[in-house]
Amino acid sequence: MSQSEQKNNPLHGKTLEHIVTRLSEHYGWAELGYLLRFNCFIKDPSVKSSLKFLRKQEWARQQVEQLYLDTFKN
Asked: Is 23 exposed, middle or buried (0-12, 13-18, 19+ CB in 10 A)?
């Protein structure tokens, strides 16, 4: 991606760990598990286990990133 494309990317500078942490603080693990239905949010949830899953599953990561954008628009 070019520098100008990154400037317009709302997730630029946000790590996956930051995104998962903010969502878990905002919703709580139970609500996050309800919204996205990923086992990493339902069964013994933690940031570490969630990151492990989301780094392997691009489709799941995209859903988490979209929820983050929808939740924290500004």
From this structure: buried
Residues of the chain with pLDDT under 50: none
Query: In this structure, are residues 31 and 65 in contact, taking their beta carbons and an 8 Å threshold?
Result: no
| Domains of the chain with bracketed CATH | 15-71 (1.10.720.30)
To the question of pTM greater than 0.85 for the whole model, the response is yes
Q: What is the 3-state secondary structure (H, E, C) of 50-64?
A: HHHHHHHCHHHHHHH
Element (H, E) at 41: helix 39-42
